[in-house]
Amino acid sequence: MSYMPVTDSMFLIAESREHPMHVGGLQLFTPPEGAGPDFAREVVEILRSRHEVSDRFGRRPADPVGIMGNTWWTPVTELDLEYHVRHSALPQPGRIRELFQQVSLWHGTLLDRHRPMWEIQVVEGLGDGRIAIYSKVHHSLVDGVSALRYMTLTMSEDPQDREGRAVWQKGLGRRRRAAAGPKADRSGGRLPFDPVGTVRQIGGLTGEVLGMLPASLKVVGNVLRDHDYMAPFQAPDTIFNVPIGGARRFVAQSYSLDRIDAVRSKADATVNDVVLAMCGGALRAYLLELGALPDKTLTAMVPVSLRKEGDLDSSNSVGAIIATLGTDLADPVDRLEAIHNSVRAARRVMGELSPLQILAMSAANIAGLALSPVPGFVSHTKPPFNLVISNVPGPRAPMFWNGARLDGIYPASIALDGQAMNITISTNYRNLEFGIVACRQSVPHVQRLIHHLEDALTDLEKAFT
Amino acid sequence: MSYMPVTDSMFLIAESREHPMHVGGLQLFTPPEGAGPDFAREVVEILRSRHEVSDRFGRRPADPVGIMGNTWWTPVTELDLEYHVRHSALPQPGRIRELFQQVSLWHGTLLDRHRPMWEIQVVEGLGDGRIAIYSKVHHSLVDGVSALRYMTLTMSEDPQDREGRAVWQKGLGRRRRAAAGPKADRSGGRLPFDPVGTVRQIGGLTGEVLGMLPASLKVVGNVLRDHDYMAPFQAPDTIFNVPIGGARRFVAQSYSLDRIDAVRSKADATVNDVVLAMCGGALRAYLLELGALPDKTLTAMVPVSLRKEGDLDSSNSVGAIIATLGTDLADPVDRLEAIHNSVRAARRVMGELSPLQILAMSAANIAGLALSPVPGFVSHTKPPFNLVISNVPGPRAPMFWNGARLDGIYPASIALDGQAMNITISTNYRNLEFGIVACRQSVPHVQRLIHHLEDALTDLEKAFT
């Protein structure tokens, strides 16, 4: 048995059938040349043969029923890999639509606490011959950023690599350390941030940070008059800021980084600005259609990199800001400008703070998130922001798993009471991969957002040519 | 809103991620002549078009989160039928084995309390071209007997019937009343009993029954010296009588009623005796293989019909008895005899009781079941019996759903703390359909029981020819 810090156990304690506390991801692969119809089964068999499990993926809560509290991890000597690694199929015609329907259902069920809390679904039956892998892992084991990092470590830039690595495999960490140097550095500057993980980080520092809070508020006092700066709890009430049920919808889509980059350079903005402008435009169109667009703009809690030139310690280089999404503005150019100014103002605030003050400031920004599992909190308080839009760094080159080419890697994050929708974006070589998770009950027709995101990008392209 | 009696809400209150309180069933159908590869999709579309929902299947707990207690049902005006009716597929080669793996996973997840608590999976991809339907419904809505009765009402003896009825459909009850006369009568004598449902029945009578308990114990005092009579809490500790996890295994098999009937008539026993002898023989072989067979015989809680000649009120004609399974006896003939005597002794006890006393006696027999959700109860008390073996009456004739022939209808019941395995048998024309649900963690290799049941039946056939 090993001690379970409260920063792990909080995810077990806050969990209910209304908000499972796991993060997920959907990967799409093209089988290698010459692979037969049994390819998915072969993948299942390789994964089920990986019995040597790392400490992290081989532990479970010592008291799964929770009567004695969640204070200890206990190691599991023998994994039931037939349970953890599941072989599934899509009904005909095996479109992406059928895949999303399955992932929506899988993402809404709780993990078993009597064994290590992760599951993999290997999916065959896609009409185009590809296979999909949906993974879910409890947030008490890893956060979203680490989950994707582990996933990336199983893959290789070499299509001939036939190691068939598994996320839970003992020794995978050594691969990470070997690959750490330049790669970790490169991804360090690209929003390696997970908001729920930050709650964890802040939880670990509570005393220290709470002491800093008044100080940091004083520091930022001067900039708060900046009208571009968004403080928390300025968000309007929306359909996203309600108590939620247990069922989910998941949709996802890839957008070419080249297209986004072209807009970015012409508009003199950042990739992050353009991504937020796409989200803002899509959310405006979506809410207009539902007759549910508030007059006041929606805001998003967004992770940003605050790394300064020459600062090699990336652990203090991210912060949580709140940005406008410009949903009150009909013109895409105005919207992008408002977002750009809002993000810049928030960065300016953060830029004048020490790393610990940044953490304190981020804590103030996401405080509402940490409190959302408290019964009644959501119904009786204004939302601190309307949704989380976050970014997890994925592969920087075309990747292969056991010879199969990775075509997409879509994050599926956590919906919470008061935060009925989450948009998480993963980078994957020359694509940005959007994964949207929403409460099935309170957020209707989520799949429309995919089309609205495309329209919003097209509008931006038109405006900047 | 309508009031939710405690006999419904107890199933919501007792539920946890370790023991979901739903009953399930797996049906196998042969598509009608001329059906194409889209048959499963057509079934999904027919079911999803059944928007007119009955009161029972259209209600959900008014306070799904349970903070205010579960005291009210609230009607749901519009069902999200895409959520309730799911279209699934088996991976290749689509054997029954793959089907059981899927059903095991589906049966282990909790139903969403924010909508009516039932789900249907329509499954394609079986290698032999058949389709499967797995249904689950929360025990607060219906018990296992009623669930199967509703299921049977959607079907017809007429292969030309193309009504495509759904279990939740408004007006299905009228069909029941129309069919009530002779059919209900015929099935009345055939163990229409559900042990968890009996807990419900007893819950509704608590005061009255508790008053009777001393009286009935006095009545049975005389027969307790009968050495064939099994009182509760005489069961040995076994691997089935432990706290359980949330994951399940489900296996099922049909056995010809003609084979069982042949043994029955030659042995001068009842069908129920032969079924218990099959279970006893299979459990002995299974536990021997695991090196986990106790010296003392296992006992089962078994529903029996106690209907007397000319008694037309079937509601008081069932009781819960505890029977030996003869797992201490190597010879199948000795085992069947021990079971026969044990059941007869228990029936004799019941036969001398009034209907209310029978209920009280049954309450005493299944008291352990009602207490199993109490934390610590299972770890610190002897099991009242080793497992529940129950029987739900199914169709008496070959049945069809929208032209598809029903080949099998296998019950999937509830595992509880201290009751890690449940065997439920459904009648289906000339077959007995065994459905076994077990805790995946504490009961290994459940599929072996299927073969051991076959062996046990073969042994009985050999012994009685």
From TrEMBL, chains A, B:
Source superkingdom: Bacteria
Catalytic activity: an acyl-CoA + a 1,2-diacyl-sn-glycerol = a triacyl-sn-glycerol + CoA
Pfam families tied to this protein: WS_DGAT_C, WS_DGAT_cat
The UniProt record lists the keyword Cell division: no
Domain O-acyltransferase WSD1-like N-terminal residues, every copy: 7-275
Residue ranges of domain O-acyltransferase WSD1 C-terminal in the record: 316-460
EC number, as in UniProt: 2.3.1.20
Keyword annotations: Acyltransferase, Glycerol metabolism, Lipid biosynthesis, Lipid metabolism, Transferase
Protein family: Belongs to the long-chain O-acyltransferase family.
Family matches, as PANTHER family: O-ACYLTRANSFERASE (WSD1-LIKE) FAMILY PROTEIN, WAX ESTER SYNTHASE_DIACYLGLYCEROL ACYLTRANSFERASE 4-RELATED
Protein name, per record: Diacylglycerol O-acyltransferase
Lineage start: Bacteria, Bacillati, Actinomycetota, Actinomycetes, Mycobacteriales
